[in-house]
Amino acid sequence: MAVQANWDDLRLLLAVSRRGSFLQAGQLLGIAASTVSRRLTQLEAALGEPLVERGVEGCWLTSRGLSLVDVALAAEAGLRRPAEADMSGSHTALSGSVLVSAGEGFSTCVLEAARRFTTAHPLCSVELLVTADFHKIVRGVADIAVRTAHLGEPSLIYRPIGKLAYGVFADAGYLKRFPEVTPATAVNVALLPPLDLLPQMRAAKAAGLERAQISVNSFAVQLDSVRKGLGVAVLPRILAKGLIELFAQIQLPDMDVYLVTRPQALKQPQIKCFFAILEQVLLEALCVENVEDPLLDAGPETRAVGCL
Question: In the chain, what are the domains?
Fold first, then answer.
């Protein structure tokens, strides 16, 4: 006889899927992490198969665990509908949370999408996890991720957004102090490993921009350092508003931008809605960057391609 998981079991699994650890799942539900672990272990024993993979950096769901999360989402949606109808007088109101994983450079776009989303759907909330850990979404920790690399996981949906162009930038104050700056003499605000292995950073170093007196492990700190006049840096053009681009002879490769999610996540209406809004915000941001790029002045055909 097949074992049926009840709602109390399913909501534990759903919390672990959303938070990525027993500790954070317990905090979400208001119970101890040991209780979450014990009850899920009991459920796994009853079902005769593992639902959660445990690791030092957290936990993620097995394929069986993910299939039960689909059941949990359907149950949660059924429980939520009466409350939504009472609050809004309509069965179409969206509610629930969306957890987004993105690097520092995309936080502004995610926050703008969150503003539009929560304004239109006040019963919803957005959580932004600023991280470079690409594995969080495949483990089920995040609902949506903004990525600059395609890792080829067959379980994920990759939506190509466009290209992120790079250049070498400096503040006007720095150039006033060093008007004859060259790649060899410029103070480069560099990135610490492993960020220094990005193709843009390696290309700039190969072109002679290697005098690094300041190195940081944060894109946000790197940008702030340049704005303070501490040196020059390789930056995405999308973030370099108000700065001056240098060394046009240095050719830096573009970086692909993808919006990534899991098929089961898009079954939740609030995640599907936010995914569409974030896609639009990213397209708008990359289109502005490309239209402002002088390389696109060749003609309208080229400009249109830049906005795809």
Answer: 1-90 (1.10.10.10), 94-163+255-308 (3.40.190.10), 166-253 (3.40.190.10)
